Give the backbone structure.
Amino acid sequence: MKNILLLSVLFSWAFVSGPAVAQQTKQLEFDHIFDGTFEPESVRNVNWMRDGQFYTTLVRTERDLELRKYDITSGEYEVIVTSSELENDGRNHPIIIQDYQFSADESKLMIKTDVEQIWRRSTKENYFVYDLQTGELQKLTRSEKKQQYAQLSPEGDKAAFVIDNNLYWVNLNTGEETPITTDGEKGKIINGAADWVYEEEFGFAKAWFWSPDGSKIAFYRFDETDVKEFFMTDWGPLYPKLTEFKYPKAGEQNSVVKIGVYDLASARTTWMDIDSDRDQYIPRVNWTQSSETLAIRRMNRMQNRQELILADAETGETEIIKTERSETWIDVNDDLTFLENGKQFIYASEESGYNHLYLYSMEGELIRQITQGDWEVTNFLGFNEENRQLYYISTEESPLERHFYSISITGENKRKLSDGDNWNSVNMSRDYKYYIETSSGPADPPRYTLHRGDGRQVRVLQDNAPLYSQWEEYNMPRKEFFGISLPQAELNAYMLKPHDFDPSRKYPVLVYVYGGPGSQTVDKEFGTGQRPMWHRYLTTKGYIILSIDNRGTGGRGRDFEKQVYKKLGQYEVTDQIDAIEYVIDRYEYVDPDRIGIWGWSYGGYMSTLLMAEGSDLYKAGIAVAPVTHWRFYDTIYTERFMQTPDMNPDGYQEGSPIYKVDNIKGEYLLVHGTGDDNVHFQNSIELVNQLVEAGVQFESMFYPDRNHGIYGGNTRRHLYRMMTDFILEEL
């Protein structure tokens, strides 16, 4: 389950530099949620070239789709190729560039087109290879079937891809195709692609990797034969069909995973010795600097032990060089970098209580902790071999903020490269000579600036100045952050008030909740998209919006997050209820008889629990796509936090809304998509059964064939209009 973050808003320089606007000049309307009026301009799809002074991006013009190469310092560009130029025999229309990648020497382009979405990250598509020097365009494969996860070799003379659960490579000079695997079969064996649960919970769909010199390919093999099938009904045809896929629910059988290395010269696959234990995970595979050595991370099923293994790509022999253990769970990350000297690597861990960066020898001996303090490294951007600097984003200033730093590999000379007290993200060039910083504040739309690697600003790429003015014209609500002091914890929260707020009045309050492990709704990032705009719209109807980050949420270290272990839905609910009582006691303008709550996914789970356990506080609640019993959810996510149902039966029961619905007193709206492959519609079906049995009246809405995001056509507008009407009527 993915964390759903609410982006937050506070004061910007546009407001603190002068007096507040005396009166609202324009009215925020419901249609503004969807029409893009307040959507900031952005600098999208920046793909850095080898020379960090250039980047490429796709730009849609009135007549065509252009792949442009920009000089980062001047802003000047040249058009590399347009979609209308890409014609191929057998196609009666140009090739629309939907994604692309360069060969290592940047002489060839791999172009992705005809993309067909499968699950969250998985797709099928067609690929073409375009020679930038000769203008020749060739189809990647002779097969008429769509491909998956194609990638050029480092030299650009070969490519590999997946078709029908088998992995292939092709010599681009001769056109000769060679199967790497032949045993792929739907519902049984998957080669080079992730199964459903790895894709969703470990965050990758492509499951194969070129070695540094292009001589070998490492790949995953999933045997999901014994994984039970889940069925969803496709209601579109006259006679509805079934969509079948393997989905391991908590406590059930997972796929058996193997890691192979295929040598292109010998056409031989060597299987790495990772043990034959069925109850283990391989969340990450990385090549080291050598094409002879593969790095494999292995976890036990409970995900509280992680081993870093080095494997000999020729023999398959393995050695565990580092073992990390936790009393709760270990989070998987991509922060593993092998140095060019072949003797050391940089590794991220929260063993100190906060996520930090460490330097180890290739024998697994700790050389030093590079970053340290009561704050977290949230994103490791890389290591510059030339100047020996690491670049990272952290919470050092505040859990509500993100700032950019550099530090020497010795742990010395730390520098803060970002300014202000806002939320910053960074896209660095591959040679670390330049980076694009995106900085946004609670009421400050994103500002994109180009910097040299040492932090010096080169130029402003996009400042969204018109949106600043527009924000003032509409007198947009501004988020106010505050702390909630409870006996068990100090919580972060924000309020969003009507523009004409009068502290002598009583206001209804709608609480937005997510609350899941590692998530964060209270932060200082600018809020874009439909959810933040809907919240702003509701303030024009006289509502206060409130959000609170309970125990278990992220950005505040291991101990704050992981005390919810084996008790999902318990500490979080206690915190939310205590926090609402705190707000009612201290803010007289809050109407205690008109408190509502809403959430989506984990937030829908929370809002349902709170409607039951806080029935005297919450007058109305909305749950969108909620988990209603952890027994219905997948192995990797659920067992990470709850162990298996057999190991923790009390935790599963205490954390399930199904057993508590008879306590619901307020008005309750349940929403779900019937095509939700993530949080299955089954969750809401079983909840409805229990609501009916308990005699609890409620409202519900199902969206046929919509997935977890509940979108498509007019769906989102319908959903938000329905939720608006419900809130206006019930609060």
About this structure: The chain has eleven helices and 43 strands. The domain at 478-730 is CATH 3.40.50.1820 (Rossmann fold).
